[in-house]
Amino acid sequence: ALNALFQPALIASLPEIVPDTRQLQATNALMDVTTRVAMSIAPVLAGYLLALTSAENLFLFDALTFFVSASAIYAIGKKYRWQADKPKTKDIRADIIEGFKLIVAHRPLAWGIFVVIFWVNIIWSLFYIIGIPLFAQEVLGGDARTFGLIVTAYGVGNVIGGFVIGNVSTNRKLLMLFGGKVVLGFGFVILASATSLPMAMFGAFCASFGGPMTDITLLVIMQKELPTGTIGKTYSCRMIVYEIVGLIGLVAAPVFSDVIGR
């Protein structure tokens, strides 16, 4: 819940810290890559740590890392006190409505969020979160290590894709948004057709390039083409859509599995 406060503030602050468009895209990519690296190594790291300590201690360690993060932000100092140009409002409902209106009025953002993210991410959450573990066990005959290797391959591709997209400048942002999901789908087709672990890992690696293509492009559009004081609001609306479709995908997973079979 508190991440809903942190992430929009971070995204809205970056254009003020890095005003150059090319550097801003690279900065967004760097932030994106750090997240994807953490998500890639965390499952493997947790497996080793659980062999040495309890789950309770892992949660305690996780909590301590947030204090480190807060200290790093505090270290920026009092000189950085950027405020949005537009006065803040205490009406959360009005902020949400305004954010969605801005998205609807901006055609690339509207297509990117209401079409690309909404429909594709329903399938992604169903396939990646639910489908891949079942695929690793029932098709490849593997275990948690098999699943971990597929996720690692996906994470490695995410990281490489983030660095590549961070250094690619394009004016055809809408094409980049849709191209990212085409790449994602192509990789998942390879993964779903796999009869061996190496082939499944290759499919996951290919699919993973699609995430940075879409996510980084959306961030740059928001940060450079919307009024400064509205970036946080529109990103919050993007988060709302993303979390809703993820929930829909997870809820639909059992029904979908019953209809087509495992």
Please specify the SSE layout and strand pairing:
Layout lengths: L2 H15 L3 H30 L4 H20 L17 H14 L1 H33 L4 H23 L6 H20 L4 H12 L1 H16 L5 H30 L2
Helix pairs in contact: 1-10, 2-6, 2-9, 4-10, 5-6, 5-7, 5-9, 5-10, 6-8, 6-9, 7-8, 7-9
Mean pLDDT: 80
Flag low-confidence runs.
none
Strand runs, count:
0
**What is the gyration radius calculated from CA atoms?**
20 Å
Order of helices and strands: HHHHHHHHHH
Helix content: over 70%
Task: Give the helix tally.
Answer: 10
Main sheet characteristics: none
N→C terminal distance: 33 Å
How does the overall form come out from the CA principal axes? globular
Per DSSP, what share of the residues sits in E-state strands of 2 or more residues? Answer: under 5%
Q: Please state the oligomeric state of the protein chains shown.
A: single chain
**Class from secondary-structure proportions:** mainly alpha
Can you walk me through this structure?
The protein has 262 residues and is mostly helical. 81% of the residues lie in helices and 0% in strands. It has 10 helices and no strands. Helix 5 packs antiparallel against helix 6, helix 5 runs antiparallel to helix 9 (210-225) and helix 5 runs parallel beside helix 10.
Fill in the keyword field for this structure.
0% strand, single chain, mainly alpha
Short characterization:
The chain has 262 residues and is mainly α.
